[in-house]
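SECTION: protein entry
WANTED: fold as tokens:
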Amino acid sequence: MSNPSSNNRNNTFFGGAAILAAGLIIVKLIGAFYKIPLGNILGEAGFSDFNASYYIYSLLITVSTGGLPVALSKMISEANAQGRYNQVSKTFRVAFTTFFVLGTVSFCLMFFFPKQLAGLINNDQSWYSIRALAPAIFFLCPLSALRGYFQGHSIMTPTAVSQIIEALSKLVIGLSLAMALLSASSNESLAAAGAICGVSVGCGLGMAYTAICFRAHRREAPVGSDRPEPSRKIFRTLLQLAIPITLGSSVIGLVNLIDTGMIYGRLQDAAGFTELQARSLKGVFDQAATLYNLPSSFMVPITASIIPAVSAARAVKNRKLGAQISETALRTTALLAIPAGVGLFVLSEPIMRLLYPSTDVELGGWMLSILAIAVIFVCFMLGCNAILQAHRLVTIPMVTTIIGCVIKLIINYVLVGNRQINIHGAPVSTLVCFAIIAILDLIIIKRTLPRSLSLTRAFGKPLISALVMGLAVWAVYGLASSFLAGPEGLSNSANAIATLLSVGVGGVIYLVLVVALRAISPQDLKFMPKGDKIGRLLRITPAK
């Protein structure tokens, strides 16, 4: 007879991931209506200023909250599994105080020293956006603590809803301010700061909503009889878990910041471009990178669910269940990442033409094709990092990330500074960086998990399905574009029809192949709510 508690834990993995995924789909749809028009409104240089401020913001966010929410959700999940409810409450109080202090320090840095930070990345015009983002980091730090609390309880709805609130605020307030400021002043940098204001307002509203949910949850929380650990010990444990995770995450944020300054500097100093030309070239790369970042964002539901699910299993010494969840997470990553990368690679230029018709489509399409391959490795890196962290191997992701990022900086310095290669070197360095990190992580996981992991079993069928899908997408787009092309070539509207048609056909073919090849295993379905019924419907598991 199965253990009911185990079944509950099984369902929380994909159940929580499904809630976050549903929220993320809504967020990304809203984000598409925000960032794509914004890129066209601001132009290449203004969009470059917008993204430059984000690199500084992302680094400070990573330093302030990169590892703490993960550590908090892990500690709360373990205490919950053991029935230590007073320990849960005290752990959250210690963590929330820490988050608040870090948020205040980061706010002061961005609000009072924006010009100095803009100078560090060789883009003086981005200081407006940096200051406009300062309130966002103040609100996001305590919001991250609240999200870590709920994720530790495997309650994902507050996180999903607060993200939707943030996205709506960006869309409505951010776009409105950007258009108003651009119309009033014709200053692209100031308009970029207006767009950023929507982010700050959204973080404030998201924090208010999540705080209301927290108060409601605390009123219904079970009363504990356990004696919690001293605050100092909780803080020490929190840091022991959080610091390696934060350092590993901060490496990428720091490297992106250094990378941004290096790209601007090498394009001007070594390759001989003017500041405006450098900002425009970087703007095209940022437009391609916006699409490249989209698939990896769908790893958030998986990584957010892996850590509490595996941690709860390990807290009750069920190592086999923890390993099963880890393997299912890797297979799920493959099912999502490989087709996304293949699809972006095949349709890189048509997609750029569809979404950014006023940009340098040929350059953007080439960069997106390289970044499309990198997408696959980025997703595997994120999944592997969550698995390693859940198994308390928190220093390994930091080491592998440092190795990959150092190589990225070296490649960028050499290639971007070459006049003939210039910005083309940026996506190449990104691909090499994340390929190295992901491969190292996969090797380590295969050797350390307490249960044998077959990479062929995890990745083979999704890869075959995605490659066949890619060939179909390439053929459908080629036929459709030939049929729709007029005397003057393929118009933007015809390109849109051909692109969307090929995406739709590719999606159907991929889903059919996944089911036909049994790329989803009966073990995966055990971790999914109503998994037995889904398995019988798809004929993956036998009927009872």
